[in-house]
Amino acid sequence: MKSLVRDARFLAAFILLFAGSMGATRAADLSQAVMLVASDSLAGSSFEQTVIVATPLPQGGHAGFIVNRPTGVKLETLFPEQASTHKVVDSVYAGGPAMPRAVFALTRKAPDKSAEVLPLMPGLVAVIDAETVDRIIETRPNDARYFVGLMVWGPDELEAQVDAGAWEVRPADVDSVLPANATGLWKSLSGTPV
User: Taking the complete model, does pTM exceed 0.85, yes or no?
Assistant: First the structure.
């Protein structure tokens, strides 16, 4: 009987220890904006060493932008007839494979209420309508980062990719989304999970 009690205590201690370690590896919280850092399982794919800001959509699924892929192409090259594009200093970023002909602006200052925006997190919105993107280019051209294309996941798609180990999930903050040196972002974020 004593060995049975000892075994039961050992089993209870093991269960408590195991349950505690399971809490540390809980599923990632994708109910708010996150940074997705490509894991080694994406090596050799088009998403190798990619960092994405992703946010949940009201109707389900997620949308986001690859934030560490400057193209080296200036906005003025894409729209040479639009004089205001010549004022934009930074290159356009490759935001993702969805809607590859659309230009989006990520900005800290939300435009007027008539603009179509996707709130990414406090202090950062994605401007998604062409008229407002043009207005930003004309009035404050270097207060935004411009992206061609975006990332889109249907309901439960991103969760499945995270569960499969494709992405490491990190907290999102504006400075990580709009860093001065985007090309070194993957290296600085990889290897330190939430």
Answer: no
